[in-house]
Amino acid sequence: MNRRVYPAMVAVLALLMCGCVEETPRIPTPYKVRQINRLPFYFENPESRTAAVSVTSEEHRLSFFGWGEQTDKAFTMQLPDDVSSYNRVLLEYRMGAWEKMPGEWDNTTMLFVENKDGERFEIARAITPYGNSFGSLWSKTFWLDVTEYLPMLQGETTFYLYYGGWDATDKRAHTVTVTFHYYKGKRARNTVFVHKLYDSSRDGNSGYRAWCYGVAGYDIEAEERLGLRTIEVPENVKSLELRVAITGHGHDQGKFVERVGYRTKNAAEFDENYYKFVVNGEQQEAEGYIFYDNSTNYKQAGTYLYDRANWAPGNPINVQYWSIEAPAEGYGTMTLDINLDKFESKMTEPNAEGVAQYITEVFLFGFDK
């Protein structure tokens, strides 16, 4: 064995022994955002099992209830008191007609569930169809997986409905009926943390439960809108998922500043857009796409085949889901920011007719596995 000790090695050993050389600090591993391959809704019930419990609401006639949250239509449902034996909850969302036919226009309807602290979380958003080609017997049903909301869906539960249209009459209107189906089984994970990140419905500035986009003095990236958020993640959270529900509306002919040679196509309803994540100051490679292919939409009146900003007339919206992978040391305190492409509106007021705007509801769900 070669027992020769080199002078440089002796010097390093001496420094280590006297504590004169600091250990290289460990660089924290970064967060990682990845898109989850999950459908926003189903056209047929995805479960072959029979639900153990199903609870159906009354048929709700949709008319303009008012602008603010305080004017939303409230209703209660008596859901199972004990949900520990269920591993899946599906929301059956039925659109229908009132009296002679549905309402005429494609308008936004939003369904919120209230948690035990009185805070509202959007559980579904759907756009009504153009109703002029339908009669009194028309209906359309969709299925949404809402299992992550399970802690809120027990006992006597309050829900709220918003409808953004004025087309209801005594003889015609859109309707919504909801049914919650509970399926028995052992859960692979439990929801232990729910956190609201962005809520334009509560703090909107366009008059349509939305944030205006690109209007000078009303930056959508401002702190009170899509600005930076700091989240204290509890220690029992082992995985995090984002529910991102962003739909574009308006017919603004402004300019996408960084898109060279791009011609605006009625922002934000008919214009594609992107959103990017910044987690703990680092921009993620993953980015969301705010646009939706409507070429296969079902037949109705109006421009139902036109592609739109994450929605189609007569359907639930295109919600997108993302996982946030934890660093090796766990989540702890983290910051998150969502950024849109920069846009300069032609409008000067946030509630101007046709202003570009986004209805934005972003929630963070934490699970124990």
Helix content: under 10%
Approximate shape? globular
Briefly note the structural class of the backbone: mainly beta
The beta-strand count equals 23
Radius of gyration: 25 Å
Question: What would your notes on this structure say?
Answer:
By secondary structure, the chain is mostly beta strands. The chain is 4% helix and 39% strand. It contains two helices and 23 strands. It has helices at residues 7-18, 200-203, and strands at 32-35, 53-56, 60-62, 73-78, 86-97, 108-114, 120-127, 139-145, 156-163, 174-184, 191-199, 211-212, 229-232, 239-249, 251-252, 255-256, 267-268, 273-279, 282-290, 320-325, 333-340, 343-344, 357-367. The strands form six sheets. Strands 1, 11, 12, 14, 20 and 23 form a six-stranded antiparallel sheet that branches. Strand 18 and strand 19 (282-290) form a beta hairpin. The longest helix has 12 residues, at 7-18. The protein is globular. Mean pLDDT is 93; it is low at 1-16.
Features:
369 residues; mainly beta; five-stranded antiparallel beta sheet; 23 strands; disordered N terminus
Write the layout of secondary structure elements.
Elements: H1 7-18, E1 32-35, E2 53-56, E3 60-62, E4 73-78, E5 86-97, E6 108-114, E7 120-127, E8 139-145, E9 156-163, E10 174-184, E11 191-199, H2 200-203, E12 211-212, E13 229-232, E14 239-249, E15 251-252, E16 255-256, E17 267-268, E18 273-279, E19 282-290, E20 320-325, E21 333-340, E22 343-344, E23 357-367
Antiparallel strand pairs: 1-20, 2-10, 3-10, 4-9, 5-8, 5-10, 6-7, 6-9, 11-23, 12-23, 13-21, 14-20, 14-23, 15-17, 16-22, 18-19, 18-21
